[in-house]
Design brief:
Elements (H helix, E strand, L loop, with lengths): L9 E9 L3 E11 L1 E6 L2 E2 L15 E8 L7 E10 L21 E10 L4 E5 L5 E4 L2 E5 L3 E4 L19 E2 L7 E4 L5
Parallel strand pairs: 5-13
Antiparallel strand pairs: 1-6, 1-9, 2-5, 2-7, 3-4, 3-6, 7-8, 9-12, 10-11
Length: 183
């Protein structure tokens, strides 16, 4: 009842190449429980604790960002940090609600449309790299623990050496629906 469970909070990264003039670029992303995405070391959007809570056994929400002005010619680094949110509530500090739908996971699609009329889809798959984040405890009710000694300086920037990182494992999840924005 409410005992300590492992708290695995991953980082994901992928380098992508842009070799043509970009007309538009959009990212569609869901992180269960929550995510924070960056491109070339800069956070995307000003949202916090995305996506919103759902009945995870049935569906999850994804968030859309226009990233046209974030991509540059050449190599770009995509980075995603996950947190537990309501998807995985570890025991220990808070025991009233300790549900666990599974460990944090994410799914992403980057759609790049080029001026020449072609398009490219970059999707989350086993080619992404992953490693543990410096956050070693995260609870929507119990706070967060961060060990700066575990930081991976520049992990979400171009040129980072991810040779020691593991390939991501593909998984399944609930049905995805767009997160609606309230005015």
């Amino acid at each position: 009842m409410g005992g300590k469970r492992p708290d695995l909070l991953p980082l994901f990264r992928k380098d992508i190449s842009i070799n043509k003039e970009v007309k538009a670029a959009t990212v569609f992303i869901s992180g269960l429980g929550h995510f924070e995405m960056s491109i070339n070391g800069s956070k995307i959007g000003d949202n916090f604790l995305d996506p919103g809570w759902t009945q995870y056994a049935k569906q999850a929400q994804y968030v859309t960002f226009d990233i046209t002005d974030r991509l540059r010619n050449g190599t770009n680094a995509l980075g995603v940090m996950l947190g537990n949110g309501f998807y995985y509530i570890p025991g220990e500090r808070y025991r009233k609600m300790t549900g666990a739908y599974g460990y944090p996971k994410m799914i992403a699609r980057v759609l790049v449309e080029y001026i020449d009329g072609t398009a490219e889809n970059i999707v989350s798959d086993a080619s992404w790299k992953t490693a543990p984040s410096p956050i070693y405890f995260s609870s929507i009710y119990g706070g967060e623990d961060y060990d700066a000694n575990l930081e991976k300086k520049g992990w979400d920037k171009m040129g980072f050496n991810d040779a020691a990182w593991k390939n991501a494992i593909t998984t399944t999840g609930p049905e995805l629906v767009a997160q609606l924005v309230c005015p």
